[in-house]
Amino acid sequence: MNKQKTLVYGLIAGSATIGYFLLFYFIQPRLFFSLGVQWASLLIFIGCMVLAVRNGRRLAGEGQYPWQLGLRAAFAVYVLAAVMYHLFYCLLYNYGGPELAAIQED
How far is CA 52 from the centre of its chain? Predict the structure, then answer.
């Protein structure tokens, strides 16, 4: 798997997840903590992980794609996207939206 493509898909997943949560934060901050919103964000992660594995399979050619490479690519995408999201969450929680602590407490 091309490491650059894995990085690109990880950045896409992280950016899309951040945009997704910002959308709900700007609509109504209480929606940011909704369980449906939280669980639905995993679809972005899974979609980008699948795209990274499919792209790696296409780059590998006609031969059988080793599952270790697919797992490594999918995991790298997930880790990069999760790190981006959690950095965003910490920055938003501590500096961007002071009302989030009160909302989460409720």
Answer: 13
Query: What is the tally of helices (H) and strands (E) in the chain?
Result: 4, 0
DSSP state of 98: T
CA–CA separation, 6 vs 95, rounded Å? 31
Rg (CA), the chain: 16
Strand residue runs (E) in 1-106: none
Average pLDDT of the segment spanning 55-73: 73
41: tokens are 């964000």
| Token code pair at residue 92 | 């938003």
| Torsion angle in degrees (nearest 10) through CA of 48, 83, 20, 69 | 0
